[in-house]
What does this fold into?
Amino acid sequence: MTLFKPAKPIKKNSRERTGTTVDTPHSKRITHLVAYAILLGICVILFEPLISTLSTNAFDYVTHLKWASDMENGQKLILPHPLYHLLTILSKKALAISYPQASTLVIVLSIFFLAVLNYNILKAHTSALIAIFFSVCLLIITPLQLFFAVDQHLYFGYIGISIYHSPTMLLLKPLSLLAFCYALKSVDSPQHNNLSNGLALAFALFLSGISKPNFLMIVLPAFVLFLLVTQQLKSALTNKYIYLAFFLPIITLLGLQFFQTFFFQDLSQATGGTESHIVVLPFETMAHYSDFLFPKLILSIAFPLLTFLFYPRAFIQDKAVVFSCCCLLMGLVLTYFFAESGSRMYDGNFWWSGQMGLYLVFLFSVAFLFKNRQHLTIRDVDKVKYSLCLALFFLHALFGIFFYKQELFFNAKFW
It folds into this structure.
């Protein structure tokens, strides 16, 4: 298994080929470079207008850019996740541009990085053009917002998948996906657990943590649950590589962030907010903004849920899918049951964990369908089920296009 090949197909026939042509290393490099260029062009055309507008006007961007300005001017570092601010400051200084322009550059490149990771994961099981197309679709998919006609909400009550109003979340996505792949590789291909891969895993976890801690909060328990479900817990816990490359970076960084935020109250003091702590309040933050929470959950996970219902045995045999589902489960626990007390009670800062977990499930559900297409489309009824899964995915993408349009022209008006 390579970093971007999450698992082997369900079955393997030595006479079957996963591709239609045999590519030389040179032709593969050319194909990948062309694909990256196409993805970069799409990301710039699609997201530069939106992100530049948000960087100038949207509340989250303006707030974070003010904090970046404070950091540049030598004021006390108050944030437990300063990566976006540091990258923005560096871009502003290096290119002599404004804060909104630097923010746009950082976030659009982050989205492009996510598209490249999507492409590399999907390209292992399909053609380059299809991988490009689905990689872009994955950048814009949203829940099926069927209650919009009832409550005028496109975001509240759902588990968001593609959101644009949080720059730190957009930065988190590709870094979390990279860390996820390295973590999966550490148990799926332990023969590759060398120093370079260990440092890569630890560094990816560190970067995702200082961009936003929400992924670390779910991947730690999710990884243990994944090992338990796949009956690898005992062997993994006797491997010092897992402790040094995975557990140590997460526990150290989350510990420091927890003490800074909830013990020393640095963020609350610097922003003038009331003291904040982690509290267990089931459904409080989600129900504050929206009704219909259960049907909205189903509409959020519709595509992977249908894929599971159609192919339950094969679905749970795919380790990447199982691991991503464990991340989603932990994310849903945080989303629905936890909150922050004080002035940040209804900021929904635990929602990001569920959103990150759901994105992983969508991506690896698509990879699952591509990887096992031949075995899942043998009979006519199988082809119908397979087509229904893809149709539902495209429906998520269509709702995503609608959400993108609303965010571009009416930022946050229809959340």
